Amino acid sequence: MKTPKLNLALPLRSSLLILALSATANAGEIPISGIESFHQGDSLDGDGSVLKAIDGSGMDKVDFDDPSTWTVASTAWADDWQGFSSETSGDNTWAVIDLGAPAASLRTMYLWNIQETNALDRGVNEFEVFHATNPTLPPPTTSGTVTPYSFTSGGWTAIGASELRMGTQIGDAGQAYDLSDAAGARYIGLKLTSNHGGFRTGFAEVAFSDVVDPDALTPGEPPVGPVDRNVVSIANVFAFHQGDSLNGNGSVLKIADGSGMAKGDADDPATWTISNTAWTTDWQGFSADNSGNNTWAVLDLGAQTAGLDKMYLWNVQETNALDRGTSIFDVYYTSSPSEAAPDTSGTVTPYDFGGSGWNQLSTGNNLAIGSQIGDPGEVFDISGASGARYIGLHLTANHGGTRTGLAEVAITVDPSAGNGLQILSVDTSEFEENKLGLTWYSRPGRVYGINYSDDLIEWIELTDSYPANADGKITTFSYEGPDVFAAKKRFYQVFEVE
Q: Over the stretch 388-431, which tens digit does the pLDDT of each residue have?
């Protein structure tokens, strides 16, 4: 069997088909009898309290007994729960839901994130799920004081980690999570390990059902289905001036942390829009002198990145400060500058892209003045910078204000442009008939191998000579075997043959 030089392992569970077949069952909501959390929110038992996360307020329930039909109907803070802490390390931020009695039929949990305008970034991002029937140490009573709680205190069983995208407001359908492993539990614990960048942490609503959901994520496992993770993480940002702080509100770091953004699809910046007009989520460097090498920013992607494709920019959004946004800029790139960008500080420091090992990609790019809530930003082609680690922005003009800056930046790659294999979709429409289809981004003239494993240790070869499709960009492999559906869990591996 040939061994892969580059592979993707994608888990497929036989429960995928079970989920699909169960979708037409008579769904039943499992009632919640109580909830405790690290902090009460805006009140102990009224508007904005943690109790609002279990009372159905702010929700449009097409079928009252089926949470999969519920969508968000209110963006008021009163219907959210926003605990008073963004310190998500240790055991600081958590919630425990009490179902009142052991729920043998528990199958699915639904979560909806914070929906208040200008507060979407307070919603939970990453979290861990636990279950218990009788915890050794009961959770503390909710109060106006932030109180830690450890799920290692006894009686709790970990299911796994997952994530919840930022709220999209009216019509948000939430996210389903497979909690079949928690069947029989009375308590569900959520350890909130990160939020979307805001200064509180919480969510809008939680519900449980006795029916599995075909779109449910399984905590502890990567998502199954279309995968299109094209956003490049920005490791650091340097600039001519820090802005209103070095690393907090209003700092240059805010342009790369997603704060103040509504992300329809977290992996597609084309769906991102401005959700906050506060100065705290903008960066406004303390200079309007855009002459020479005075005003600039450098994005460090952390490593040389093949397949760079698009750069998305959103301008300053603070009311009465829109004219501080960047108007005209040049783009540069490099893998290793001969002269590193200066450390960001509270002093305006020039930097010359012309003599430091940089290549100019484009000049005279225009960025419109910010239009505040709903601003979709603008997109710029940076495919010519493929392979670079650093992207430089020479800010040559603003819109007439007393400072110069931006609100947000995002970088994407083209997964078909040599940035590695990437699964595009998984066809499970005939899963019960032991048929499976894998589709991935490919390269012209290449030959691929496909293996599978039930334990990630022993791999079985399906083929070692499957050619890319004629156009080379997308290739599909269809497989039929006697145990495709029967396998409890299976990993498929796609790789380029040496």
A: 889 999 999 999 999 999 999 999 987 555 434 556 667 777 87
- Domains defined for the chain, CATH in brackets: 7-11+418-496 (2.60.40), 24-209 (2.60.120.260), 231-413 (2.60.120.260)
CB 449 within 8 A of CB 475: no
Tens of pLDDT, residue by residue over 276-322, are 999 999 999 999 999 999 999 999 988 777 678 899 999 999 999 99
Q: Which of 456, 417, 412, 463 is nearest to 438 (CA)?
A: 463
Whose tokens are 């429409």? That residue is: 429
Which residue(s) pair with 217 in the sheet? Answer: 177
Helix (H, G, I), strand (E, B) or coil at 247: coil
Q: What is the distance between the alpha carbons of residues 355 and 337, in angstroms, rounded to a whole number?
A: 9
Q: How many CA atoms lie within 13 A of 10 on its CB side?
A: 24
Residue 260: DSSP 8-state:
T
Instruction: Give the strand pairing for 70-72 and 81-83.
Output: unpaired
Pair 174, 53: CB distance under 8 Å: no
DSSP per-residue string spanning 233-255: P--EEEESS-BSSSSSTTBGGGG
The secondary structure of residue 21, as a DSSP letter, is H
Dihedral of the alpha carbons of 257, 353, 328, 234, in degrees to the nearest 10: -10
**What's the rounded Cα separation, in Å, for the pair 208 and 176?**
9
Give the SS3 label for residue 383.
Answer: helix
Looking at residue 190, its amino acid is L
Q: Tokens standing for 382?
A: 């940076």
Cα–Cα distance measured from residue 175 to residue 464, given in angstroms and rounded to the nearest whole number: 38
DSSP structural state of residue 437? E
Pairwise CA distance, residues 477 & 463, whole Å = 10
| CB 135, CB 156: distance < 8 Å | yes
- The residue length of the chain stands at 498
pLDDT tens column, 106-150: 999 999 999 998 898 899 989 999 999 999 999 999 999 999 999
Rounded Cα gap, residues 81 and 141, in angstroms: 16
If DSSP codes are grouped into helix, strand and coil, which group holds residue 131?
A: strand
What stretch of H or E contains 467? strand 460-467
Cα 358 → chain centroid:
31
Q: What is the DSSP string of 385-408?
A: GTT-SEEEEEEEEESSSSSEEESE
Distance from chain centroid for Cα 250? 22
Task: Decide: 329 and 272 in contact? Cβ < 8 Å.
Answer: no
DSSP state of 254: G
Distance CA 431, CA 423 (A): 18
